């Protein structure tokens, strides 16, 4: 009976010691997500679309490469705001972040406000969060 008690206690101690390591990994992933999203938001606010493109999932970049023409279209707008409205985690590990993007057309000087939905996924192999949707489309609805 005493042997069963000590074996059970040993199993419980081993299981509980794994929890802090898992929590630390989760915190590190969350911190990496925050840092990556901040880098992306900063690049968008400053109109550095090439840097923002580097955060897009490599599979998406391969399937839908950003041409020089598309990049030049981004130069026609000035981003006047890029701010988070909210965020939520999905069951499949994808994090969804809702954003408000304000852009000014450099030709007409008209400002538009857009709602953007970003989907972020964690890549274990790269140790990186990737944006699944590509760059926001400042011309959506036009």
Distance between the termini: 75 Å
Characterize the largest beta sheet: strand count, sense, and whether it forms a barrel: 4 strands, antiparallel
- Can you list the strand order of the major beta sheet? 1-2-3-4
SSE order, one letter for each helix or strand: HHHHEEEE
Tally the helices.
4
- Class by alpha and beta content: alpha+beta
Mean pLDDT: 85
Q: How much helicity do the residues have?
A: 40-55%
Strand content: 25-35%
- Could you name the ranges where pLDDT drops below 50 across 5 or more consecutive residues? 15-23
From the spread of the alpha carbons, the general shape counts as elongated
Count of distinct strands? 4
- Cα radius of gyration in angstroms: 21 Å
Write the layout of secondary structure elements.
Layout: H1 2-45, H2 49-53, H3 58-63, H4 68-74, E1 77-89, E2 95-105, E3 111-123, E4 128-131
Antiparallel strand pairs: 1-2, 2-3, 3-4
Molecular structure report:
There is one protein chain. Residues 15-23 have low confidence and may be disordered. The longest helix has 44 residues, at 2-45. The chain is 44% helix and 29% strand. β2 (95-105) and β3 (111-123) form a beta hairpin. A 4-stranded antiparallel β-sheet has the order 1-2-3-4, with helices on one face. The chain starts with a helix and ends in an 11-residue tail after the last strand. With 142 residues, the protein is an alpha+beta fold.
